[in-house]
Specification:
CATH superfamily of the largest domain: Pseudouridine synthase
Number of strands: 18
Structural class: alpha+beta
CATH topology of the largest domain: Pseudouridine synthase
Number of helices: 8
Distance between the termini: 48 Å
Shape: globular
Radius of gyration: 23 Å
Order of helices and strands: EEEHHEEEEEHEEHEEEEEEHHHHEE
């Protein structure tokens, strides 16, 4: 079998995707990861570098990958004892399995010469990141609608749904960037939260610190009497209750700033976290369903839940015929990477409106 190696320059195509049991999957493909040796990596052997920096695969895999040329340095096969030097090019040729996402459509709302707006489904990342490349909003729009290049104007967390604005050229993207940096945009989301939210408008004006290692944010009020500066960034969100049934409330959320997980952590601070947000709900709710727990696996939990064996077996039987098994791949014969469950639900947070000087884009409310 002749192997065709893909790079980020290869566009996603319709035939790359498989729909299975309500999920959107990508056929595994051969891909070349390229990076440059950073100063902190220099002095390590090529195998030790991969084993320490990319712990998702066993040490023996990296030894074999170097020996057979799946891992190269400056385009050349090297021994496993090879010592890396700064700025060298490292290529890792591997059989790539992308995580699945929920199989909701990426609906195009507005298509203009300079702008495209879509209704982003929950669980789909906006752009290539981590293990996702084709299973992203940008990838799906390119494959299904031929829309490229696209420049996301703002970000939505993977599990958040709703309005997403994408510029179609760098000039328009830069104009949006200037308006964002100038504080000229108004943003509106709706959330379903725990309990009866206060009836009066509530402004939460409290700093947020995002811990990259833990993948979560915390509020940080600060103390003018302390000499130690706070790590957090200023953040402000306005909340207005739309309705309540005594158990849950629907709340309009208007972030003034744009910090990571800002709405989610500010709602937690009010005592009314998003009702299925397990990353910020744990101290309020004891009865956590398996489905709820999976809703925020990628939002910051470092531990990957156990794989649903029935789902894996079904994927092997139904889907493995759709791609070639690679003998060196640590993920084959499964279609999805190891550790991804069948069930996942979106966060009950939905972007409905963005507006700026002379423009406004909207997205339908969720059911």
């Amino acid at each position: 079998m002749e192997i065709v190696w893909q790079t980020p320059a290869n566009p996603p195509e319709r035939q790359d995707y498989i729909f299975h049991k309500g999920r959107h999957l990508v056929r595994p493909y051969y891909f070349e990861f390229i990076s440059r040796v950073k100063n902190r990596w220099a002095g390590k052997t090529v195998v030790d570098f991969f084993a320490q920096e990319f712990k998702g695969r066993p040490y023996d895999y990296y030894v074999s990958a170097v020996q057979c040329g799946r891992i190269q340095v400056d385009g050349e096969t090297v021994p496993v004892s090879y010592i890396l030097r700064p700025s060298q090019k490292i290529s890792h040729f591997l059989h790539r399995h992308e995580p699945p996402v929920m199989a909701s459509d990426v609906t195009v709302l507005v298509e203009e010469p300079d702008v495209v707006t879509v209704c982003k489904p929950a669980s789909v990342p906006v752009h290539p990141c981590g293990q996702y490349r084709k299973n992203t909003v940008v990838g799906i729009l390119q494959a299904e609608h031929g829309l490229a290049p696209l420049f996301p104007v703002h970000r939505l967390d993977r599990l958040v749904s709703g309005l997403l604005i994408l510029a179609r050229n760098a000039t328009k993207a830069d104009l949006f960037r200037q308006q964002i940096e100038g504080g000229m945009l108004q943003k509106q989301y709706i959330a379903k939260v725990v309990g009866t939210f206060p009836e009066k408008e509530l402004l939460v004006d409290i700093g947020i610190y995002y811990n990259h290692r833990e993948g979560r944010s915390t509020v940080e009020a600060g103390d003018s009497c302390r000499d130690t500066p706070t790590k957090g960034k200023t953040a402000s969100t306005k909340f207005t209750r739309i309705s309540s049934n005594g158990t849950h409330s629907i709340v309009l959320c208007e972030p003034v700033t744009g910090r990571t997980h800002q709405i989610r952590v500010h709602l937690q601070y009010t005592g009314h976290p998003i009702a299925n947000d397990m990353l910020y709900l744990s101290e309020y709710v004891d009865n956590r369903s398996d489905v709820g727990m999976s809703a925020d696996r990628a939002a910051g939990k470092s531990l990957i839940p156990e794989t649903n064996n029935m789902y894996v077996d079904d994927c092997e039987e139904t889907c493995s015929k759709n791609f070639s098994i690679d003998p060196m791949c640590t993920q084959c014969p499964n279609l999805a990477p190891t550790g991804y469950e069948e069930h996942e639900e979106g966060l009950w947070l939905h972007c409905i409106r963005y507006s700026g000087p002379g423009w406004k884009y909207e997205c339908p409310y969720p059911g």
